[in-house]
Amino acid sequence: MALRLYNTLSGKVEEFQPMNNNEVRMYVCGPTVYDYGHIGNFRTFVAVDVLRRFLRQSGYTVHHVMNITDVDDKIIHNAAHAGLSVQQYTAKYEKAFLEDAATLNIEQPILVRATEHIPEMAQFVADLEKKGFAYRAEDGSYYFRIAKFPGYGKLSKKDFAGMEDGARVDVDDYDKDNARDFALWKAPKPGEASWETPIGRGRPGWHIECSVMSMQQLGETFDLHAGGEDLIFPHHENEIAQSESMTGKPFVRFWFHARFLLVEGEKMSKSLGNFFTLRDLVLKGHKPSSIRFLLASVPYRNQLNFTFDGLKQAAVSVERLRNFQSRLDTGQFPQGASEQMTELARDTLKRFWSGMEDDLNTAQAQAAIFDMVRKGNAAIDAGQLKRDDAAALLDVLERFDQIFAVLEDDETEKMKKILNWAKSEKREKDVSNTLLQTMEAQELSDAGIEQKIAEMENARRSRNFQSSDAIRAELMAAGIVVENTKDGVRWKRK
RNA sequence: GGCGCGGUACCCAAGUGGCUAAGGGAGAGGUCUGCAAAACCUUUAUGCGUCGGUUCGAUUCCGACCCGCGCCUCCA
User: Fold this and answer.
1) How large is the ipTM?
2) Which residue among A19, A45, A221, A322 sits deepest, i.e. has the most Cβ atoms within 10 Å of its Cβ?
């Protein structure tokens, strides 16, 4: 059994085997740091994170590299508008992106930045020109000659053969030999950021950074290259053209693309008012774990409809898993193991795993876990769960969470950071009461809460229910839920 | 216009040429419970966009149509 993964290049689901036994070398196209990351960006990065974690859980050592695009037209434009240097401008958004990724429990890959590889890129362009794949235009820009690369279009399944003669040529593209030729290197326009290099002054085109940095980090041919579906063309098609022209070898074995999401049933766009950054959602009071759970629960190749209702549902689902985990953790169970539960743990893990192996079918994998939760809860209710069973079920839950990463309950700290950020950015008006209430619950110390609960328990023991209910209500108002179980009192922050 | 993906219950969302069409949420009823929370049980698609076709049999394959979405010059 092994992971079967859809490969955009072949258009088929294939068995994934890395080139070197236990090592996977993968590259993901990272963010262009010109603004805060939105929920669509994070769908892709969560999908890649799930892939990365699953590969690691499968026993591979994963070399995972991600680029930061820190120079492009939009950055140059926005930076100038803000009166900042490109570097000052991008530093802010790169930091924000990495914080947001951490908020969503996305493990950080090895980072490489475009602006830190300018000489290598210039060299790459020079070499491509030497080999006849690139040419210099009159203004000092360099273009890739796609006519020289017969495989052009193989990733995006486009046939460019018939388009060469008689193809329309845009008036402003008079510099290019063919309208489809793409920029490797851009000559500077007045006031734009540029670098002095042996091929002249200028800045890299968009695609070149990924070819140069990925091959530098991972070799001329590597296992996996990921990104959003929009990158298939032209970005990844162009990367293939540049890289394979340079080395004469296959560039990437598996191409992995995450599908775009919809927000409230529509394409996300600023004009529709359904454009949300991660921070927007947290300020509205949604927990990072709910967001991650929702993003991860629809398989990456399917369109995901991201809705606020769905976010609420995800929160409850995560809560259900956490409740079960806590029940297993704190419950008192008799020694030993039961055959049914041992089998349940084994079967669940198997189902979970085969769901994941089936092109990362996270919905299927999740269903196995929820089945286990129901059966496990029922066994506890019936008094049939033994101590070793609890450990076995907890272990399965742990395996699930090493990939989904939603059970760890330390979110208030993350949310607080975002709250503080909102204050520093003068965005207090966007802070919801839900978030404030969650934060309030955090203000109470564990000791303070336990003190209150002790008072409540005393009142209950002396059957002074009026008093105990008052304390319960008070705690509830502060976002603390107290549960009285036959194994004792348990409480949690909501 | 070209290429591609999808339309499954109130919502989100898997899946299959024929056994009861996963799972989660929501609603209803019940069990437990001083209350609350959690949990469990029952219940909610004779039906899988529409219409044809192939087949002993289709939600699953094929065709047409309707709707949604993506790519086709830098949006994840």
Assistant:
1) 0.95
2) A45
Q: What's the pLDDT tens digit per position in A122-141?
A: 999 999 999 999 999 999 99
Q: Which nucleotide is nearest to A268 (CA to C1')?
A: B75
**3-class SS shares of chain A: helix, strand, coil, % to 5:** 50, 15, 30
Provide DSSP, A222-233: EEEEEEEGGGII
Cβ atoms within 10 Å, residue A367? 14
Which domains are assigned to chain A?
A: 4-258 (3.40.50.620), 266-404 (1.10.730.10), 411-493 (no CATH)
pLDDT tens digit string along A374-430? 999 999 999 999 999 999 999 999 999 999 999 987 798 999 999 999 999 999 999
Contact of A114 with A67, CB cutoff 8 Å: yes
Closest nucleotide to A263: CA versus each C1' = B69
C-beta separation of A259 from A44 below 8 A: no
Residues A33, A34, A39, A40, CA torsion sign: negative
* Integer Cα distance of A183 and A235 in angstroms: 11
Per the DSSP assignment, residues forming a β-bridge with A358 are A4
Q: How far apart are CA A313 and CA A110, in angstroms?
A: 34
Q: What 3-state DSSP class applies to A484?
A: strand
CA–C1' A106–B20 (A): 40
| CA/C1' separation A26–B56 (Å) | 50
Distance A369 CA to B50 C1' (A): 37
Q: Tokens 């793409």 correspond to what residue? A: A182
